[in-house]
Write a structure and sequence with these properties.
This protein is of the alpha+beta class. The protein has 25 helices and seven strands.
Amino acid sequence: MFKKNIIFLCLFLLSFNALTQNYKSDSLVKEYNTCRTDSCKAQQAINIFWYWFDLNQDSAKIYMQEYLNYFIGEKYDLGIVVTSQALAYIEKKNGNYVQSFNILNSALELVGEDYSKIILLLNLAEDNRSLENFTVSIEQIEDAIKLIKNIQDSILLLRAYNRLAATYFEANELNQTLKYIDSSNYLAEKFNYTLALANNYEIAGAVFHAQKKNKKSIDYYLKALKINKANADTIAMTNNFINIGISYFSINNFEEAVVYLKNGAENCVKFNQKYNLLNSLNFLSRAYKELNNYELAYFYLDSAMSLRVILFDEEKNNKINELNKKYEVDKKEFLITQNEKSLAQKEIIIRQQKRQKFSLFILLILVIIFSFLIFKTRKKLKQSNTILKNQQIEMEKQKQDLLVANEKLVQTAMFKQNMTQMIVHDLKTPLNKMISFTKKHSDIPANVQLHNSSLIMLNLVENILYYAKFEYSEIFVSIKKVNLKHIIGAAYEQTNFLFYQKGIKFQIISPSNFIVFADDELLIRVFVNLFTNALKFTNNGGQILVILEQYDNNLQITVKDTGIGIKPEKIDKIFDIYENEKVKISDNISSTGIGLYFCKKVIEAHNSYINVKSTVGKGSEFIFSLKFAEKNVTDETNFFEDLNINFSLTNAEKQSLKKVVEKLKLIEIYEISSINTVLNQVPDKTENIKKWILKVQNSVNNFNVEIFNKLIKLAEVK
């Protein structure tokens, strides 16, 4: 009896739902008829289309054809566009691409406004691209771009460039793809259109992957992932994770491949992306096989095979449904003409409305009869469900408690990260002001000491900042060709006052001047930390050497000191963070305990590693390698040679150099191009002045601050 009651209730609800749907349709049509402007009618026509599309495509088609005829009569371009697109969409869904193209082409001939033509051309191009008619698709997008330039719509233009790039990529014309990605990126960056930027980065990543330039591919996929994360675009993030994982797999970095592929697989499960999930499972199986983890390799392979069977069944059922739909459409078209079909459908709708009203009346009576029975049944069910509900409430409470606790942990971690970076950035500003001020007033002994202490403190602050960035994966290495001698010189310039304080000699042993592939900013900080570390543990009067040796395509760099050395039991832990925290620091050279840890992380980011050799009482050697680029044998400058000053300037020559000297006092020695620009402004160049200019240039090229300052004082007017 209970089952019969439920069946009757379902019949009532279905009938009631049908009546409700019919009422909503009447309401939408009524709103269309009351519209006083064509723009209002066009908007309401779209609402009617989407309402009927899911319920009855034939009804949707009837309405759209009627409204299209109206807009053609009114010569209203926007109305023609929206109704034509709706009719074409129905045909595409039923596999009638030829009919879809005919509808859009007919609309293209009817409209006169450039904007309407652009929309139709881009739709036609997208349909041709989906059917792999790439040549036609490209021509249509290019025609659209010409019209877009006429109306000067930058956002529409960057989207068109993006579609053109995507079409060229699918046509395997990769150079053209990159060209239009650049064009689209320029406009996207100008107007801060992040969604287009992310899409462009994804296409660029696919291009570089196709060219087997997987490191560049990863860079672009990571850029796209960063934007999609900011926009919370989880579907796009899923594709990013999978593409990054596949790129890492291609360069044999299987550990990173597993991390990103797992993230992608989790999102695929969450958002029911079965084909992407199959791709992820296949690559996860292959990656674990390469990592010799055959248990997980088999697990993911078995999961992929099971999913492939499910997808095969779905594809088979979809094809059967498509064939059934096509059969029904062909059958109707064979039996009646288009006009007869339109009239018949309208009559059917009217009859359905009458039947629905009658059904509602009957079912209302049935509801009254069975309401009492249903009430009794529900009372019994309520008693049996009370315990279950209480359990569910308790479980939900526990779940909420866990979510709150987890949220607090996340907030604490984010607070720690933000506070660290905020404090460090706040410290840098006053430190930089102190450094600048004390440098300008270096004639006061106390200022010199304060200047040196500020430089030490700035180095410690920079280490903390970079450590925080590494800890939260916010550092990206920018590899390019750099002059290693200039890198070492810049690091020495930041630490030379420590060498002078302890009387420690510095020397580079190198057969030539080397060019390497590296991130210059990070590499300078590596040498600063290695020099500072060596200075801590080297006694006064000691020596620090930098030895450069080429081995095949790599350049080995050794930083060697004559300090106290490292005990054997400490060697393996020397790069552990805060390991040297308990070591006594000499000469007031402070430490955060993260300098060597920072060096290790940066060298590893350059696809290398850093090693240490040490003998207690004799000193230590820190050794790492960089990829060799080229050797500049013509540059034999010794950065640290002593430059003799064996001449003097007359008062007239000093007067001639007065303005130049004032400008040089405001420039740092490592700002070589700025110094050369100032030197070129010298008006009258006597032999002594020429000699003075040459000496200044040599001191700059050698990063010799002492000689540079002596030359400045030599030219000052007293």
